[in-house]
């Protein structure tokens, strides 16, 4: 269907359609002696057995492009004819990056539904809000997350919960070996095999409600149409081609969760648009499994978030030579600023520059560095994006506003909140403070609501500047600045090599006086934090963003 996300699944020819689209990397390799043909395999020379063991996708669950098209059609039929879902209905998905996700996601779209990815990290209160706000009646979830819904189901519109399990992503051999049983999801697929629905989808139809993380209030559902998502997929594909990747030849490693815009846009829509192969890893913070997947499958492209680069860098340093990541051609970091030390740790092993990008739930992926040399920036816009720095101050810092065909149409059921971020002439107010350099590369300075305040005489104080000064101190590992009392800011720091609470307090007491002198020397007086507190770690969300709301709340407690 032209101009919709379903165009990504259209047939391309017999052999092209039988190419692998998705591989689930579970990190487990059954030894040859456990396979049905073990006796025959044992007769082979040892070097032949070793070659079988090293086959990139040997004994891993896979989906070809044809499999994805057929199974998503079957699931669309099951949803419509067996479950009773109707066009325009919102359907929830709580499944990690596994083979079931693309089947379910495109199945929902094929029957004219609206996909609502849900995060396993949402609290029960947040899930309750989302289920009621979107009027979700059907949920497809991994069985491990079933308890999250059972306790709140009666107070929500939910009528149907379809469970899946890990065996739906494993090979038959592994399932039999582990004693796995068929899930509701797999039985529905089997009963509906070969069937499809006849539903006409238009580019302007709503395809997705992507809920914000809820770190600054209740989650809000960003409305995206087929048209906006497909346009963003094509722009991302243009970007990766500009970075040197080729259609039909690449292997993407998908660890960024599909309930987040980074994962959905760059690791689901984009590889399908580029006719690539995608390796799925369900646990985004299992660094050894991620590195093993890169080494074994020879992945060529990875888009992750800072916490992942930090974890992989540490793992590589502790296990020199254990993981070959030389196959990677492109690595991009998003969701928050990449720490310079973490960048260097990973780059020293990989040998190339990590590029930084920018996107948001409401606007898709909009910016990316082209060379990796644009230090401190997120690069330039993707094709089709116009940007504006609104109401800049004397330092040319202002709110970033974006206009593109990828932007959301509004927040679901929230006209007031929509009017606050979408102007009448289609500018999306991102809420991010930004500035551009002479070459047009954009730097994100912080959030309008979280990373800037006015001082005693109405001076603008940008917290990023103070955080950079703190991080330049050799004793400090992490730093976060928030608005404090009496028009002064407050700082939280994490010390290097100190993880025990008691030791942290003692060491900080010893360093506090010198740290204050250091700040007075490097900052204007009104920017020096009134309070400095030490923690063993900063509160962060699943993607590693510091939760400044929690830090502000901590000020009123301590």
TrEMBL record:
Pfam family, one: AMP-binding
GO molecular function: ligase activity, forming carbon-sulfur bonds
Domain AMP-dependent synthetase/ligase residue range list: 61-412
Domain AMP-binding enzyme C-terminal: 465-545
Superkingdom classification of source: Bacteria
Matches recorded under PROSITE patterns: AMP_BINDING
Record-linked PANTHER family: LONG-CHAIN-FATTY-ACID--COA LIGASE, SURFACTIN SYNTHASE SUBUNIT 1
Protein name: AMP-dependent synthetase/ligase domain-containing protein
């Amino acid at each position: 269907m032209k101009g919709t996300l379903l165009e990504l699944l259209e047939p391309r020819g017999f052999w092209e359609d039988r190419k692998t689209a998705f591989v689930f990397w579970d990190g487990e390799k059954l030894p040859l002696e456990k396979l049905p043909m073990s006796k025959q395999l044992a007769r082979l020379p040892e070097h032949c057995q070793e070659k079988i063991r090293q086959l990139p996708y040997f004994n891993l669950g896979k989906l070809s492009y044809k499999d994805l098209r057929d199974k998503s059609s079957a699931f669309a039929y099951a949803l419509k004819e067996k479950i009773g879902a109707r066009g325009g209905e919102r359907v929830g998905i709580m499944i990690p990056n596994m083979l079931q996700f693309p089947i379910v996601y495109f199945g929902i779209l094929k029957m004219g539904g609206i996909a609502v990815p849900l995060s396993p990290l949402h609290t029960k209160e947040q899930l309750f809000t989302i289920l009621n706000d979107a009027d979700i009646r059907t949920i497809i979830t991994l069985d491990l997350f079933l308890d999250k819904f059972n306790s709140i189901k009666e107070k929500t519109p939910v009528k149907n919960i379809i469970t899946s399990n890990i065996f739906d992503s494993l090979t038959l051999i592994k399932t039999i070996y582990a004693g796995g049983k068929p899930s509701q999801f797999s039985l529905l697929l089997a009963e509906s095999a070969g069937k499809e629905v006849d539903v006409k989808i238009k580019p302007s139809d709503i395809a997705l409600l992507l809920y914000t993380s809820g770190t600054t209030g209740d989650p809000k559902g960003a409305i995206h149409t087929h048209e906006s998502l497909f346009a963003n997929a094509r722009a991302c594909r243009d970007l990766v081609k500009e970075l040197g990747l080729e259609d039909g030849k690449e292997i993407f490693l998908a660890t960024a969760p599909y309930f987040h815009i980074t994962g959905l846009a760059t690791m689901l829509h984009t590889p399908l648009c580029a006719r690539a192969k995608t390796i799925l890893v369900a646990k985004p913070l299992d660094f050894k499994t991620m590195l093993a997947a890169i080494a074994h499958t020879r992945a060529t492209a990875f888009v992750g978030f800072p916490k992942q680069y930090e974890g992989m860098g540490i793992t590589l340093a502790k296990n020199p030579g254990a993981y070959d990541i030389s196959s990677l051609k492109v690595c991009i970091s998003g969701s928050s600023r990449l720490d310079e030390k973490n960048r260097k740790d990973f780059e020293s092993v990989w040998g190339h520059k990590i590029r930084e990008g920018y996107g948001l739930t409401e606007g898709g992926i909009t910016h990316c560095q082209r060379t990796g040399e644009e230090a401190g920036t997120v690069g330039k816009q993707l094709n089709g994006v116009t940007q504006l720095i609104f109401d800049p101050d004397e330092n040319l810092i202002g709110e970033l506003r974006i206009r593109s065909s990828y932007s959301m149409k509004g927040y679901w059921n929230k006209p007031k909140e929509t009017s606050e971020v979408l102007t009448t002439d289609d500018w999306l107010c991102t809420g991010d403070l930004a500035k551009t350099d002479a070459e047009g590369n954009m730097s994100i300075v912080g959030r309008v609501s979280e990373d800037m305040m006015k001082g005693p005489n109405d001076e603008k104080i940008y917290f990023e500047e103070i955080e950079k000064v703190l991080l330049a101190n050799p004793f400090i590992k992490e730093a976060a600045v928030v608005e404090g009392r009496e028009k002064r800011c407050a700082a939280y720091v994490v010390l290097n090599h100190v993880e025990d609470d008691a030791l942290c307090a003692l060491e900080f007491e010893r360093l506090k006086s010198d740290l204050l002198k250091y700040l007075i020397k490097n900052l204007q007086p009104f920017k020096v934090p009134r309070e400095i507190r030490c923690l063993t770690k900063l509160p962060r969300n699943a993607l590693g963003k510091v939760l400044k709301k929690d830090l502000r709340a901590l000020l009123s407690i301590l």
